[in-house]
Amino acid sequence: MLHLTKVAFGATSVDHLAERLAMRAAEGPFFLTTRYLPKRHEEIAGQADESGSLFWIIKHQLVARSPILRFGDAEGGKVAIHLDPRVILVQARPKRAHQGWRYLEGADAPVDLGGDASGLADMPPALMGKLAELALI
Questions:
Q1: pTM
Q2: Which of 1, 50, 76, 108 is 20 to 30 Å apart from 44, CA to CA?
Q3: Contact assessment for residue 61 and residue 93, using Cβ atoms and an 8 Å cutoff
Q4: Per-residue DSSP letters for 2-25?
Q5: CA neighbor of 101 nearest in space, from 23, 39, 24
Q6: What is the spatial distance between Cα 95 and Cα 123, in angstroms, rounded to a whole number?
Q7: Quick check: helix, strand or coil at residue 82?
Q8: Distance CA 72, CA 15 (A)
Q9: Distance of alpha carbon 92 from alpha carbon 95, whole angstroms
């Protein structure tokens, strides 16, 4: 499975990102635009239960993901990356900021939080980020 990474430009926290995505999704179909269709788009938008995700970078860390639903056309000859507006918390991992999007192999993707008994999913995102910076989680 293949994923994409992208900086959540202007988002100061996971909560802020979730609010922004919810507001945009309330306005209609939710998608981001890019100039070029990723060459490996078929690996990303595979089967519904095995499609890739867009992993969000906030403050130099991968902190959350939104499932990619499909790729399509957008105005001006651009490409639309249609996303599920859900923000799924992942185990924070350091990641340098970059422009545009980058590929992330499935084996290198951080695991989702919430399915285990660790209680990490209940922790405030800011605290989770600090603990990840200190390599404690």
A1: 0.82
A2: 76
A3: yes
A4: EEEEEE-TT--SHHHHHHHHHHHH
A5: 39
A6: 21
A7: strand
A8: 28
A9: 9
Dihedral of alpha carbons 99, 45, 108, 94, sign: positive
- DSSP-derived 3-state class of residue 134: coil
Q: Is the pLDDT of residue 19 over 60?
A: yes
pLDDT digits (tens, 9 = 90+) for 31-42: 999 999 999 999
pLDDT the model gives residue 113: 81
pLDDT digits (tens, 9 = 90+) for 41-95: 999 986 656 789 999 999 899 999 999 999 999 999 999 999 998 899 898 888 9
CA dist list (Å): 57 to 7, 13, 78: 4, 10, 23
Residue 14 and residue 128: Cα distance in Å, rounded? 10
